[in-house]
Structure formats: structure tokens, C-alpha cells
Amino acid sequence: MTAQIAFLLLTHLGAAVPFGVVVTTLFGGDVDIRAEGSGNIGATNVVRLYGWKLGGWALALDVLKGFVPVLLARLLWPEAGVLWWGLVALWAFLAHCFPVYLAFRGGKGVATGAGGLLALSPHVTVPAVGVWVTLVAVTGRSSLAALGSVISVVVLAWFLMPELLPVVAALALGIVATHTPNIRRLVRGEEKQVVKPVRWARGSEEQSDARAVLAQGPGGGVAAPGVWKEAEDPLAVEE
Q1: Which of 6, 20, 73, 176 is the S-S candidate for 88 at Cβ 3.0 to 4.6 Å?
Q2: What's the confidence (pLDDT) of residue 200?
Q3: In Å, what is the CA distance from 172 to each residue of 60, 117, 150, 177, 229?
Q4: Sequence-separated (6 or more) residues with CB below 8 Å from residue 148
Q5: Are 90 and 170 in contact (CB under 8 A)?
Q6: Cα 7 to Cα 110: distance, rounded to the nearest angstrom
Q7: Cα(55)–Cα(67) distance, rounded to whole angstroms?
Q8: What would the mean pLDDT of 155-169 be, rounded to a whole number?
């Protein structure tokens, strides 16, 4: 029991590291992600302010914060069962949401929770990640994608791994709780997009104006004014 308590303490210290702040401080500009955008330390706000290059690193590291502790717990206590491993996943999720290094003001916990679930059951987690990616591509809103993936992971656990359902339900409730402000903005229609959604009919819309197409230069941009200009008719009489 003492070893497990010590492991939970180390899990919190590791999962509480705000990688979004670390990555942007070391490799970003002067913009503090805690003061700009949504003010959140997670990968979504990093993408919003610095793009996918730094956002991708923040996302991967946040996933590892949940994945590694659960994987270690399974290796160290292989007979402990899914409830102990699930407790480690929940503890990592809470550490990201309430990090000791930032006065317990952290992120939404989606990536860290997904990492913990991935170590528990890839069969449940991978399809839910696919739902998240699809909803982000279609809507451009990370919060809506997170809520959609939460619903999908609960349904998948219900059918594929019922013994995991208490852990999944607890994580789902936690993610819904951290997204309460986002839900309110979604209801009011004020939630901002993180990326531009996919526009399937974009090509046809861009070609709809024939004059705009003819005015384009060889590279697709606006053509430069021609050097030759038609001379005025010398016989024309000004009225």
C-alpha cells in the first residue's frame, strides 16, 4: 500500500508538468498561453496561438502524461486489476487539471485522459480518437470534438469492456466538468474554432466567378497589369 501511495504521488508530480507552457516558453515567442487565447495550458490553446508544430508536441507530451503512469502501474502491479490501473489514469487526469506547479489551475484533461485510457484499452480508445479527429475536421471546434469522443468512449466501453466502464464514466464526468464554460458557449453559439473546418465544396465555389478565374495569374494569384495598353481611337470625338 505504501508503494502504491508513493507511486500516486510521483504520478501527480509527473502528470502535473504543464508541457504546453514548457514547450511554448522554450521554443515559442513572447506570448504566454495562460494570458492569451482561451488562457488554457493545454494543446488546443497552443495550436490556437502557435500552430500545430508546437501544438503537436504539447499534445503528444500531454498524452504521455496519462499513458506512461498507467503502463508502469500495469507492469509493477500486473495482478492489481483494472480498478487500480484506472485509479492511476484518473490521478494523472486530475494532476493535469489541477497541477501543483501552477496553483492547481490546469487544462481540460482530454489528452491526458486519452493517454491513460489508451494504456488501459486501445480497443476502446482508438475509435474514440477517430471520432475526435473527425469532429475537429468537420466543425473546427476542439471542445465539441472532446464531448463527442467522450460519448463514444462510454458507448464503446459499455459494449467492448464493461469492467472498464466505472473508470471511463469517471473520466467522462471529469471532462464534461472541465468543459462547462465551453458547453455554455456552444449553447450560445459563441464557441470559437481552433482550425478551419473541411469545406468539401470549396473547389467549385472558388471557380464560380469566371472573371475572377480569368484575372488570375499563372500561379493562381492576381495577375499583374499588362505592359501593353490599347491606344485610344484618335478619331473619337469627345462629347
Answers
A1: 73
A2: 53
A3: 20, 11, 6, 9, 68
A4: 131, 132, 135
A5: yes
A6: 22
A7: 18
A8: 94
